Amino acid sequence: MTDVTFNSTFAATLQYELHQPVLSLPLSLQIGDLTRLTTDGPAQLANSADDPIVKQALATLKSQVKPGAVLRVWWSTMPDDWVGFDWLCQQLVDTDAQLRQVMVPLSQVITQPGLALQSLADLSEILPEDIAHYLQLAQVVSKNEQRAHSYEWQALVAENAPLRVNLNGHLVSVAADFYDSLLERQIQPGRPVVQIIGEMLMRYSLGLPDWWYRARIQYILSTRG
Helix, strand or coil for residue 177? Predict the structure, then answer.
């Protein structure tokens, strides 16, 4: 069985706890042109700095997809995970490989060491000792389920918006300025950009990288004259 995740930090945690290789697919599908994964052209892949990592991960996945193979994907409702799961279903639906999923709830009630509501920003916050608990959530993804998610992937590719978000439990394509109002509240004269980005990363669990915030801040400032 091959374990797959779209979160590189969680991949390291999972590999450490399971004592076996884990396929990390840092595809960054929440952001940007999705047609980069519908062509073989390397220029169409994710950010140029990540090209070697992405290409190697995709090649490894391709080598694992064969009759009798079993892939177990770990994902959540964070947009990167969700779109990644849709994409993976598209890759596997017409193959003889089997797909299982561990769909991790980002919010859940825990009773040990005490009663509390646990909230995770993303899979990177899962502790190694909690992996065994989440493994109990694993279930088979039928071919019909895979096909339904592949249709969602195809719709997202057709829309090909700059950004994808989880809006009230729905995966939605939106404009690049969708979160700009949150940034504008943080932008003040003399306030360092790095401090604004840090505040956004700490206050909001949006799953967006710091370079996205930096680019949007620069755009907002440029429009103010």
Answer: coil
